Amino acid sequence: MALNINNSSLRMTAGLARQFPTDAIPQVALSGRSNVGKSSLVNCLLARKSLARVSGEPGKTITVNFYEVDRKLFLVDLPGYGFAKRTKSEADVWRRLTDGYFTKNPNIDLLKLVIQLVDSRIGPTKDDEDMLNYLSECGIPHVIVATKCDKLSATERRKSEDAIRSNPACEGADEIIFFSSKTKEGRDAVLNTITAHCGI
Question: Which of 41, 75, 89, 110 fits as disulfide partner to 67, beta carbons 3.0 to 4.6 Å?
């Protein structure tokens, strides 16, 4: 793999669309509900314990975080959605910022892939389905990463896989990868998917 993951850093924490970096390198966005495990995925992929902070209070941080990887791509952590305790004003901020990533991003043409995270124990929520449908309608390449799969028994995992694969909103995904930050299952598959879509 021609990608040095050890050469990674948090390049920008953006609270406004105008703060998004303009570097002409590929972008891979991470989307999912609050507490689905996006920060844990970033830390696992980049072999760092705390590059991405795992919030003890999910849903409170509303920023787009750009992680620069080997100066060859950005991993873009979009703010989590669907947190029940979020106020209407906080939800509006999330909506403007997330929408801004897709509509006001100066390098949206460099978005090569969206990784849609889904909790494997729960399956796609209504918010997940809305995002997946949006990605399909816009023709944005995306894969589904089913997180926390280490918490499933073999029977539960089969049911989870069947539920995800049979969900109409998931039909547009290029791939479904089961992932655990604890056991690192799926890590290599996610990295290989990222590098393939980015042409690295």
Answer: 75
CB 3 within 8 Å of CB 55? no
Domain range list for the chain: 8-198
pLDDT, tens only, 116-170: 999 999 999 999 999 999 999 999 999 999 999 999 999 999 999 999 999 999 9
Select from 195, 65, 173, 159 the least CA-distant residue to 117.
Answer: 173
Strand ranges across the sheet with 142-147? 8-14, 64-69, 73-77, 27-31, 111-119, 142-147, 176-178
Q: Where does residue 125 rank: exposed (0-12), middle (13-18), buried (19+ CB within 10 A)?
A: middle
- Cα atoms in the Cβ-side hemisphere of radius 13 Å centred on 14: 23
pTM of the model: 0.91
> Helix (H, G, I), strand (E, B), or coil: what is residue 40?
helix
